[in-house]
Specification:
Length: 150
């Protein structure tokens, strides 16, 4: 009853406020939302000349932006299948070289980075099972005392 009438009046008033119209007509809210979304898409697509959204504009713009980013990432003007993977591998190899050094990178085997991190953390030349736990506990509680003597 009264609640429905009040909510209906509020919705129509708000719709008239959004549309700038003095009277409400069925479909005004849908038309206004459609217009606003299309205007936003046109702006996103760089249609600054005031031209309206056309079907496919968003797809074309996203495609163009992705191609530009891929081109920036790979340094190539034309994309070929696998270019992103190849560039990721090149960047990974450079990172390993920068992290381990050129000779170590040339002889890199899976796990070398983990070994380097563990030996750096524990301060030991070779990692043995339990070294990390000993290091963490040593850092927390200090050196272990044997025989209960101070």
């Amino acid at each position: 009853g009264d609640l429905s009438v009040a909510l209906d009046k509020m919705a129509k008033d708000y719709t008239m406020e959004l549309t700038g119209k003095d009277t409400y007509e069925t479909g005004d809210l849908s038309k206004e939302l459609d217009k606003r979304v299309k205007d936003s898409v046109a702006q996103f697509c760089g249609k600054a000349d005031g031209s309206e959204y056309e079907f496919g504009d968003l797809t074309r713009e996203v495609n163009k932006r992705v191609k530009n980013r891929v081109s920036e990432f790979t340094g190539k003007d034309e994309y070929s299948f696998g270019d992103i993977s190849k560039e990721l591998e090149n960047k990974r190899q450079q990172w390993v070289k920068d992290t381990l050094g050129e000779e170590a990178a040339a002889n890199y085997e899976f796990g070398d980075l983990t070994k380097k991190a563990l030996t750096s953390f524990t301060g030991k030349d070779e990692y043995e099972f339990g070294d990390v736990t000993k290091k963490v506990l040593g850092n927390l509680f200090g050196p272990r005392k044997r025989g209960g003597k101070n």
